[in-house]
Structure formats: C-alpha cells, structure tokens
Amino acid sequence: MRKDRMNAINHHQHQAGPRCAILGCGRPVAAPKHRPVQQFHCVYHVQRKARHGSHWHPGYRAADLKPYVKCAESWLKANAGHPLAFAAWQELNVKLAMAGPVDPAMNLRGRSPAYRAQVAFARLREANINPDRLIAICLATAALIEDDRGSHRVREFRIVQAAKAVHRLASGTHRSWNIETRDGRMVPYTLHAYPRSSGLVMRRLGEALEKACEGLASVAIPAIIAARRHRYGPHPSHLPGWRQAPMKLPTRRVGE
C-alpha cells in the first residue's frame, strides 16, 4: 500500500513538472514563449529578479538607504580632493552631458535598454541632479548591502538597487495643459507617464554607476559604514535577537 502511494506521488510530480527552487514556493517552473526556458524558478520569482536583482531578497526602501546616503555625502564633502572621487565625478558628469535629449516616457516602449538608460541620464541632467548625488547613492547602496547581514551580496542585486534609487530621482514624463469644455470653461489636464524600472535597463544604468565609482568604493564604503554606526547606531541586523525576515511568497491561486 505504501509503495503504491509513493508511486502515485512520484507520478504526479513527474506529470506536474519541475517546481520553483525558492523554498516554500512550489509553483511550476516558468517556460514562457520566445524566451529562454527558466529551469529553476517560477514566473513570479523571475519577474521579481527582473525588478529587484534578486529572486528572493526584497528591494530596499528609500528610508533604509537614507542614513547611508547622508553619510556618503558627508564623506564626499570631507574628501572632495580625493583623486578617485574626482575621477568618479568627472566620468558621471561627462555621462550626463553626453546623454542627449530627453525622450518622453511614452516613446520608450520597444527601445533598447542602452538607449533607455541613456535617456534616464538625460532626465537626471534636466532635473539638475549633481554627479555627487549619484556617487553618494551608489556608494550608499553598496555600503548598505555590505552592512546588512541578511542581504544578497551579489553584483546584480547591488547594481540594480543603485539604479532603482537613482531612477527614482527623475523617472517620469509630466505634462499639463488646459482643455476647453463644451460650456467654454478651461479645465486643467495633467499626464504622468513613468517608464518601467525593471529589466535590462536597470542593469545598464547600474553598470554605468558602478563603473564610475569602482575605484572609490573600496576606499569609501568602510568609512561610510563606520559613520553610519556612529551617527545612527548599528544596522538592525547587528542587534541582539535579529533574525532573517521570512520571505514573502505570492498568494497561491486555485489550481496551482
């Protein structure tokens, strides 16, 4: 009887196909058309990695990053004459200046990731974002990931999180105009369009930031972490009794 039950379970698993490798998920592995077959993860976790750079780690909030950004800005002001800091500033300044015109977010669908990353730099330039701000965010993101004991310390997660933080500074296209109604009144109308902050464009944007700050990171990150601990206390993951937060899984639908 027990052998028959095990055979039935094995047959069901064979018919159902492979399941997602994320512990506790259990969804079938994604195999979308016209894309490489995902051998280990379901659609939800594939899309999650596209957005955040990690299959399982959530993206950092602006509040999580803020203390590190402030410490990074203070370090950059105190070390303004550092040759690596000047080299990073110069490279990003050229990147902003050579980004070209700003293309509205409505026109970016179907364009290459490299072009969309270039437009993102153009939007930052038009929003008067200083290169020092971009350097501070890049260094702060790397410092946060290094300081967080439960973080996913891989390059893709690091560059995507830095790119998303920079992308939030000037990410959309905003238009406003007046429309005349039938009774002759002028009614204001606004349009807000935002490009997707996921996929290869985040990788291209993060790679450009990391390339500019590559030499500076090894010098600045230990000092930023020390300054963060001195001004704001240790990261919550260093406090007694800390445990890794449970991973949030999608709601299972009937039939899955």
From TrEMBL:
Organism superkingdom: Bacteria
Region (Disordered) residue spans: 236-256
Protein's UniProt name: Uncharacterized protein
